[in-house]
Write a structure and sequence with these properties.
Length: 294
């Protein structure tokens, strides 16, 4: 990448994205009624930058132990903190005027597709770390071997493979667990962000790039959303060049962090940070209830 913006749709003017309407007719294209997404992100994203901290060392797992299930060491406190970050994240999304101009179906799709990476990005900004322990949840093989012998009224472990935004199965503080490698992937991303000492403006641009994801299936205004993401990338690049003039690799490092973020599975995030306290929750229903206040 060499510090340059990735090749996406050209932005003709600051604050104005060049986009073509979809064949079905995009309800949000054309002249904008509000300032650019970049201005909106910066104006709305007023939270102070997380204080400096030294990232904790990551324990690397061998290949044979990477799938070993782990759970939160302090589930109540960590889940409560993650829930607060999720609520703040959804308020941020609702405050972006360009998001509000999208069709309702596109809004729901972007929330379903982006809540997990936005949450983890918010955890990084707020300096929220977590520790894990080995889980007491039986392995899948143990479930298969013992499930046939369970009585109808006996305890069961419900596994929900789900689609995007699924919550995982089981419930209770002792239940649940995600693969060690998955938990380490989240911790690696958090440490990457803290090592880079990302500023409030950089977090805002990163959130815009994550929120407006044109690769989500079924979008009516895909080209417009792609232009918004491209605009966020360009603004991040310009900001880095202005503030970090002596660091020609910073934009590339931030883009690497974005790629790490996109590899984090939403089912893992739900299973690690929400399942311990609220059980086999349907994250899609929970998100829409929180977002629309139903």
């Amino acid at each position: 990448m060499h510090g340059s913006e990735p090749k996406r749709r050209h932005v003709s003017q600051p604050g104005r994205a060049t986009a073509h309407h979809s064949a079905e007719g995009c309800e949000c294209g054309g002249e904008r009624r509000h300032p650019s997404i970049l201005y909106s992100l910066l104006r709305r994203e007023g939270a102070p930058r997380a204080s400096e901290r030294v990232p904790r060392g990551l324990r690397l797992a061998c290949a044979c132990g990477a799938a070993r299930p782990v759970a939160l060491r302090a589930p109540r406190a960590t889940c409560a903190a993650a829930s607060a970050v999720l609520a703040k994240t959804l308020r941020f999304v609702k405050s972006v005027p360009c998001f509000g101009e999208l069709p309702a179906g596109d809004q729901r799709a972007l929330v379903r597709g982006g809540w997990a990476p936005l949450l983890v990005l918010g955890m990084a900004q707020d300096g929220l770390d977590f520790e894990t322990r080995e889980s007491t949840e039986p392995s899948m093989l143990q479930r298969l071997l013992t499930g046939a012998h369970e009585s109808p009224d006996g305890p069961r472990h419900h596994h929900h493979s789900g689609g995007p935004g699924g919550g995982g199965g089981g419930g209770g503080e002792e239940g649940g667990g995600v693969a060690l490698a998955e938990a380490q992937g989240i911790k690696a991303f958090l440490s990457k962000c803290w090592d880079l000492d990302i500023s409030t403006k950089e977090y805002a641009y990163l959130k815009g790039a994550v929120l407006f994801n044109p690769d989500i299936a079924g979008l009516q205004c895909q080209h417009y959303i792609q232009a918004l993401q491209s605009e966020a990338h360009q603004a991040l690049n310009e900001h880095v060049k202005l503030i970090h003039r002596g660091d020609t690799t910073r934009f590339a490092k931030l883009f690497i962090a974005l790629s790490m973020l996109r590899s984090i599975n939403s089912n893992v995030v739900a299973g690690l940070f929400f399942r311990p306290l609220i059980g086999a929750v349907n994250m899609e229903e929970l998100l829409l209830e929180m977002f629309y206040g139903k």
